[in-house]
Amino acid sequence: GVEVGPQPQGVVRADTLDKMRKIVKHGLDFVQHFNEGKEFPPCTIEVFKIMEKVDYPRNKNDEVTAIIHPKLQDQDWQPLNSGDPLFLTLDGEAITYKGDCTVYPTFINEAAYYEKKQAFVKTVKVKLTAKHIRSS
Fold it and tell me: Which of 5, 37, 41, 44 has the greatest number of C-beta atoms within 10 Å?
């Protein structure tokens, strides 16, 4: 499967649909070239590895006590460093990130994840290296 997003539930966006079509076409092109015996050289790619799901701050009654900070909203895949704001309490106080390394949050404030107690997901950048491949 291919999931391209995020986008609001029940919404079809032309730009997202176009990205999905391009991804599927590249995948099919790869399969065709591989089946024709084309050799693919070794390569390195940077990807985002999920590290942890982060919930909203909650009180002892499990009620959300802070919302996504405006500076974090719509910043999926952007670097988040120690001291950067994460949440904003209902009293207007910023709660900051206290991690020991830069992370790249995604699925920030996605409505589909509220019930899963997920404000966002922390990812880190890693490099993957693939050897050359060729069908035999």
Answer: 5
Please name which of 11, 123, 119 lies closest in space to residue 73, comparing C-alpha atoms. Answer: 119
Dist. CA 42–CA 37, nearest whole Å:
16
Specify the DSSP class assigned to residue 60: T
Cα 62 to Cα 117: distance, rounded to the nearest angstrom = 10
57-110: pLDDT as tens digits: 999 999 999 999 999 999 999 999 999 999 999 899 999 999 999 999 999 998
Q: Judge whether 63 counts as a catalytic residue.
A: no
> Which helix (H) or strand (E) element contains residue 43?
strand 43-54
- Encoded tokens for 5: 């997003």
HSE toward the beta carbon, residue 16, CA cutoff 13 A: 11
Give me the residue label for tokens 């065709």.
32
- The whole model's pTM is what? 0.78
